[in-house]
Amino acid sequence: IICSAGDFVKISNTYISLQNLLQNIETHIILFLCVLAARSAEEVDIILQRSEGGVDSALTYAKTISKYIKDLIGYVEKKLALELEFSKGLQRIYQSCKQTITQPHMPFFSIYSLALEQDLEQSSGMHQAASTLQNQTFVMPLLLRKQEHEKKRKEIKEQWLKAKRKLMECEANLRRAKQVYMTRCEEYDKARTAANRAEEEGGSSTTKTVDKKKRLEEEARNKAEEAEATYRTCIADAITQHQELEHMKVTVLRQIQEVIKQSDQTIRSATISYYQIMHMQTVALPVHYQTLCESSKLYDPGQQYAMHVKDLQMSEEPETHYEFEAYSASSSQPAVRARADSANADAQSSAEAPPTAGETGDTSTSHKDEHKRGMCNDLFLLLIIKCNIKTCDISKMARTSSTGTMSSNEDADEKDSNVTSFETPNINGIEPEIVVPTGPFRNVGLSKAAQTHKLRKLRSPSKCRECDSYVYFQGAECEECFLACHKRCLETLAIQCGHKKLQGRLQLFGQDFSQVSGNSPDGIPFIIKKCIGEIERRALRMKGIYRVNGVKTRVEKLCQAFENGKELVELSQSSPHDISNVLKLYLRQLPEPIMPFRLYNSLMGLAKESLAVMGPEGAETGKGPDLVDLGPETDPELLALVDRLKNLLKELPRPNTATLRYIARHLRRIAELEDDNKMSPSNLGIVFGPSLMRPRPTGATVSLSSLVDYPYQARIVETLIVFYPAIFHSDSSRPACASSARTQSLQQQFCMQSNNNNNNNDK
C-alpha cells in the first residue's frame, strides 16, 4: 500500500491518539477496580461491626491464617526435601553412568549421552530452584510474614480486650450504682412514711420523737440524692465507654483486615513465584524428551555397527588353499597337517568320493561356511539367554537353521476371561481356509485367525506379532506368511494368514490421514471399514455402543494387531465395545481430523446458529432440543443452515468426504435403532464430535476453546446424522428405506446373537 506523507502523518497522529485513549481507559479501569476493592473492604467491616461477635470472628480468622501459613511452609519444605533427594540421586546416576557409557560406536550413544547431560542440567536446576524457594521467594518470606502477622494480631487482640474490660468495669459500676440507688430510694420512702405517721400521732408522741423522725427522713433523702447522682454518672461513663468501644471496634477491624491483606499478598507472591519456578523447571523437559524421541526415530538399525566396521580399517584376510599331495616314500618331509577339523572332514569325504576337477575348493569352502553359520547361530542363542537381550531387532536377521535344542522359559500370560466368543461364518468376507493343527500344536487351543495358518516350530528368534515381544524357544511360525508367535499367544491371535509373506509393522495410529487413505481405492482407510463393518454385522442393537468403553488391554492388543496385520485382522472374537474404542482412538489420534482445522471456526459458527434457531438461549448455553428431519415441514432457517453445511463440506478433500459419508451413514443406521441401543443422534454427536473435529492444537494439553466447543461439535455431528440424505447428495437418490431394509436384514440374521449380547450388557 502506497500512501503520501500527509496520509502517513495522519495515520501516525491517529495511532498516537488511540494509544493515549487506551492508556486513559486503562487508568480509569484500574481506578475503578481500586474503588470497588475499597468499597468491598468497607462492606466487610460494616458487616462485622453490625454482627454480634464480629471482631472475635475476625481475630479467629487471623489466627487461622497464621496456622495456614505454617502448614504451607511445611508442605513446601517436605516437597523441596524430596526434590533435593531426587536431585542428588540424578547426580549420582550421572557420575556412575558417565564412566560406563563411553562406547561411541554403540547404538544411540549420542542420544543417551545427551540424556545424561540433560539429567545433570535438571538436577542442577532442581537444586537451584529449591535454594531459591527456601531462602528468597517462599519459605523465608512466609516465615517472616507469619511472625509479623502473629505480632500484629496479638497487639490488636490486646487492644480489643482492654477496651472490652473497660466497658465491663463501667457496666459493673453501673449495676452497683443502680442497686445502691434503689436501696436508698426505698429507705427514703420508709423514713418519710415514718415521719408522716409521727406527725399524725402528735398528740400521743413527744416533740423529740417527731424531730428524730424528721432528721432521719432528711438523711435518707440526702443519701438517695447522692445515689441518684452516682447512678447517673455511671450511666454517662458506660455510654462514653461504649462509644469508645465502637470506635475501637472500627479501628480493630480495619487493622485486622489490613494485616490479613498483607498476609494474603505475601502468600500470593510466594505462590506465584513457587509455581513459576516449577514451570520454568519442568517446561523444558517435554521438549527435551520429544527431541530425543525424534532423534531416535532417525536411527537406522545397524548404522553404528557399519560405521564401526568401516573405522576399523583392517587388512584383508589372506586366502588359504588346500591341495592334495600324493604320498611319496622318498619324501622325508611329513604331510602338511590340516588347520581345522572341518578341513580334515572334507579331506576324508573327498578321499572316499574323489571329486571332479575344480570342485574340491568350492565344496570345502561351502561346508566350512555352513559349519561356521551353525556355530555362530548357537552362540548367538546362548548369548541371548544369558544376557536377556530383549530389545534387539532380531526379526531382521536372516532365518537360519539352528542345531540347538529349544525349551521355553517364558511365563504364560493371564487370559482375559471376559472376552466373549462370537462365532461367524466367514472372515473378511471370504470363507477362510481352516488348517487342522498337527505336530506340536495339535493340543493347543487356537483362535479362529490362528487356525488359518500352517504352523510349524519357530526356527530362529523373531518378534511375536501378537504381544510384540521376542520369541526365542518353542514358538510357532506360519510356513506361508512366516508369522511368528508365542505358543501361548495362539489362543488370542487376531491376524489371519494372507498366504504370502507378512509385511513389517505399519505405523497406523497417529499417521497422517492422507497417507493411510491413499492406500485404499475408495479413499476410506481399511481400519475404519473393518471396524464399522464388524459393528454393523453384529452390534447395531447393542446397548450403549460407542458410549461404553472397551477393556484397555484388549483395545491396545487390537491396535497392535491392526499395525501388524493390517487388513488381515480377524474381529469376530472381539468385543464390539473394544472394536468401537479402536475406531474412536484412531480418529482421535489423527494429526489433523477428518474435518480439517481450517473449517473448524465455520463449523462452530453454524452450530451456534443452529442452536439459536432452535431456542433463544441455545447459542449461549450450548443446549437445545434434538434435531428432527420433518421433510418439507422443517424450519426453513434450519434447512438453510443444513444447506450451508453441505456447501462447506464440499471444500473437503475427496478421501475426507468419502470417509465422513461412510461414518455418517453408519451412525444413522445406529440412530435408527435408538429404542434398542439407546444411542440417539445427539448421544452419538457427543461421542464422535471431538473425534471428527477439533481446533488447531495450542501449547496446552486440552485447550479451553475445545472444552467450550464440545456442545457445538456434537451439534454438527447430530446434523450430519439427522440430515444425512440432504447433506450427502450422492446417496440421496437411495430411498431412506434402503438403509433400513439392509439394517433389518442384518438384524434378522444376527437377532438371537445380539439379544444375548444385550442381556449380557444389562447384567
From TrEMBL:
Task: Write out the ranges of the annotated region (Disordered).
Answer: 193-224, 325-370, 400-424
This protein is called what?
Rho GTPase activating protein 45
Q: Name one GO biological process term.
A: signal transduction
> Residue spans with biased composition (Polar residues)?
400-409
Q: Does the keyword 4Fe-4S apply?
A: no
Q: Which GO terms describe its cellular component?
A: cytosol; membrane
Q: Which residues form the Phorbol-ester/DAG-type domain?
A: 452-497
The signal sequence is none
One family name in Pfam for this protein? RhoGAP
**Source organism:** Cyprinus carpio
Which ranges are annotated Basic and acidic residues under compositional bias? 214-224
